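Checked the freezer inventory, then went back to the computational side. Two predictions to log before the end of the day. The first one is the construct we discussed on Monday; recording sequence and tokens without edits.
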Amino acid sequence: MDKLVYNAQSTTVSNDGATVMKLLDIAHPAAKTLVDIAKSQDEEVGDGTTSVVILAGEFLTAAKSFIDEGIHPQVIIRAYRKACNMTKTFIRELAVNVVPEDKEQMKNVLKRCAATSLNSKLIGAHSEFFAEMVVQAVLKLDDKALALESIGVKKEPGGSLEDSLFIEGVAFKKTFSYAGFEQQPKKIQRS
């Protein structure tokens, strides 16, 4: 769902929670905390900003009734920490162990994870197509130095989403030419 944020200088329409949160001029301390949570989530994960703000808001709503009853905030925080530890234990029980030697199992798990994370994006209808592409790119990275910065995304206007393709190696647009350019090899094979 798109949101419209207007201030005296500009108007922004976005469906990205982090973008909207950054644009808001907030004075209330609790609301500022929610903005900080959204920014942290965006920096660490790059997704889920709206979800963490809604979740934090629900935690605050639940805590309000206890504070109204006179329960000290430290008691509430201790209970939240205990609930967090219980949740972590439950998640560990649900975890699926992936054996790195079983390449096919690892590839399938990575595809499902990628497709799940792509479902909330504009390309959600094509999540299977792009999940395959993402997994191909990640599996090409060096095992020792998993540098995600090594994966580049080049955007070209026109065409459909299904025209996207994965290119192993380096891809760039021709931005210059020089005398004799036509005689140079157009493809270099790795030896």
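The second is the one RB wanted added to the comparison set:
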Amino acid sequence: MKRKIPVQNTDFISAGHNIQTPFSVILSTESSNQEVKCSRVLRNLPGKRLVCAAETGGQKVVAKFFTDPKKGKMHCRREEQGLSAFAKAGINTSELIFRAAIDPEGGRPVLVFRMFEDATDFTVAWERAQTDSRRMYLLKMLASTTALIHEAGLIHNDAHPGNFMVSGDLLYAIDGASVKVPNRGRALSPSRSVKNLAAVFSQFEPCFDHLFAEAFTAYTEKRKYPKSLSHANLLKKQIRIQRKKREKKYLKKIYRQSSAQVCSRGWDHFVVCKRNGHTRAMARLLEDPDRFISEGKLLKKGNSSTVAVLKVDGRSLVVKRYNIKSFGHALSRCFRPSRAWRSWKNAHRLLMLGIATPQPVGLLEKRFGPLRSKAYFITEYSPGLDAYGWFHSSGGKKPDVYCVIRQFGHILQIFYEHLIVHGDFKATNFILTENNRIVVIDLDAMRCHTRMGWYFHRQFARDCQRLMQNWSDIPEVSDLFYQEIEARGLLIPKNL
């Protein structure tokens, strides 16, 4: 006979992304009912999983709710099996306190884990790292733990840094649902191991690629692999492949409803907005952006676009309206993605690659059925001086000039490696912040090519040519830029 669970509020199951904390829930275990008080949402996939920081019996715990009524039991079973496989392999992992269910039939199971003391999500620890030595320490921990996972014959099909926790000198592997045992306990082959490790490394920004060689050495030493150039080359190749796959998958999500953003489609509009900024004030802006533009501070008023900076909820935003100049222009634009659509995509692409650009906040397209009209692209405001003014203000003799030029070189190298052409490399499209970090703006002409062909090389050379023209009246700066480009092996002719 099943024990009855007291009537309780289970609205959090159907609340979607709008879960209100704190809330309490009474869970049914094999021997008793347990009250769990959830104080903070750690992860939420509506209709699938909900992970909360919680407390039960005076103990801090993590409660993982499997809310899918049909597949919840299967997902819970996979989670337990994966974590059990970690534990048997001697890998630090989550400690299960008890398993329970929300309803008497057990259709929505719950796993309650002991909360790690002073633990930090690996991605948070990485963001806090201020030096390469600290980053290397974290990478070696990650590589060594991954080596143990592979040596035990396990493979993580959802391998990413967010599935690890750092606590002092220990690294914990969590999220066992995606753990597979492909070789019945036999260690993974070198090629499969390297490919899976590349899936982890590919999620770091390209500016940290120089750290991977030493971290890979820590991995090979743990696996007792002999030194092999072929393994290192395979790792580099797979990192590029995995990044492309991640980029393609990620850029498909940015135009639809998700945990990160809200999306609205109608006969006369398409709107997507970051969820953390979708307030009432933002909704009013998206309903009537022209009024806000007229009340804001105009930065540009042209035929093709109008740009204004304004305040919403106390933060400064830039709204760029792409105008329709004539009936003929309307016909030429109505069947293809708007420039705001492209800017939204390109901003997310650059941020994935670790290149600074104003954070995208919202996108609005005015539509008539499938036909597109005026469009609006909304970003956070990035204060600073444009690169033209920065270099010309002192003839390029500022103490930080070499650092800034190296940043330009890094941006060019990332663009070249990822087949990206900006389309308008004039100096005013680069903003230098207070700490001289370059922020790339005006992304509507940016394109990502599919292959390293003659057409890409021609377009990339034009970008470089336009960049060099900015400093034609400052020979010292022009020479330094050419030296930086040449040092990176981008093979740009000096007569550009």
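For RB: The CA atoms of residues 337 and 372 lie 8 Å apart. The mean pLDDT is 88. Let me know if you want it refolded.
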